[in-house]
Amino acid sequence: MFTKLVKLDRRDFLELIFTITITEFIYPHKLLGFIKPNLLKKGDYLQGIYGISLDNYPELLPIWGSIRIKIENTLMFYPQVIIVHVPKEEYGVEFIAVCERCPHEGYPVKDLDPDLHLFECSGHGTLFDVTGRYVWGPASRDLERLNLEYDGDKTIYLEVALYPLNMLNEEREFAYLRQNFPNPCSDKTKIVFGTSKPANVDIFLVDFKGNVVQKIFSGLCTEKINEIILDVSNFTSGSYILKMNVDGKHFFTKKLIVEH
Ligand code: FES
């Protein structure tokens, strides 16, 4: 089933492309939800403020609870962020957000060690504490920490510099492919995508050997929000890759997991 939705103005479209994807912290990183930003101009940058409700993301309620966040289309930093609920008496704050890219050679850090509360780099083993501070190893610098405010009740506000304002002119073209929802999926899953201007779009589902399992969409994309419901009930359980090309160029890849 393919649905074309309403036309949008540019600001609404920027909210779409900078929408964050929230997943569980640990493998298989189950998809938890999406949050659109409030967009502001701050200095020379477009700033996104993301209100993360603890009611919607109870994974953050327990001390040492955590979520993983992906921000797409930003030019400003490595777009994977980890938020951890830490004991206030020890750290002076309730929540900490760090970028998961190691400053050594850019590998992501692994999951937080549940006993030592350290991040270990998946590349060459540098250790960082939960605040992102360098502890040991070849990186010798801290993980980048992001601004975050907690209202003391139910909401965390994550502040992210998203894009240089001087590069956000009307001519700039954007596209997005949202993570399918739900993921993992067993019968049906929703795929949402769009382009800021009409463009030729191809979306394929391929298996891990690179074989095309299904063509999801192929043609001129003229709408900014397009939804496709994909029936995966006959697919073999396992991991697949969603690939999106725009005007013949590879743009996005998403991992789709089928579990029966
Ligand atoms: S990339 Fe992290 S230690 Fe080398």
Note down, in words, how this protein is organized.
With 260 residues, the chain is mainly beta. It folds into 2 domains: 10-101 and 144-165, no CATH class; 175-258, Sandwich (Immunoglobulin-like). It contains 2 helices and 21 strands. The strands form 5 sheets. The chain has a 6-stranded antiparallel β-sheet with strand order 3-2-6-7-8-12, with no helix packed on it. A 4-stranded antiparallel β-sheet has the order 1-19-16-15, with no helix packed on it. It has a 4-stranded antiparallel β-sheet with strand order 4-5-14-13, with helices on one face. Strand 2 (20-24) and strand 3 form a beta hairpin. The radius of gyration is 19 Å and the shape is globular. The two termini are 22 Å apart. 32% of the residues are buried. The structure holds FE2/S2 (inorganic) cluster. FE2/S2 (inorganic) cluster is lined by residues 102, 104-105, 107, 121, 123-126, 137-139.
Question: What's this model, at a glance?
Answer:
By secondary structure, the protein is mainly beta. The chain contains 2 helices and 21 strands.
Helix content: under 10%
Report the sheet-strand fraction: over 45%
Give the total of domains.
Answer: 2
Distance between the termini: 22 Å
Main sheet makeup: 6 strands, antiparallel
Instruction: List the helices and strands in order.
Output: EHEEEEEEHEEEEEEEEEEEEEE
Unreliable sequence segments:
none
Major sheet: arrangement of strands:
3-2-6-7-8-12
Q: List the ions, cofactors and other small molecules found in this model.
A: FE2/S2 (inorganic) cluster
Please tally the helical runs, counting DSSP H or I stretches of 4 or more residues: 2
Give the rounded overall mean pLDDT: 91
Query: Radius of gyration from the CA trace?
Result: 19 Å
Instruction: Give the overall shape.
Output: globular
Per DSSP E runs of 2 or more residues, the count of β-strands stands at 21
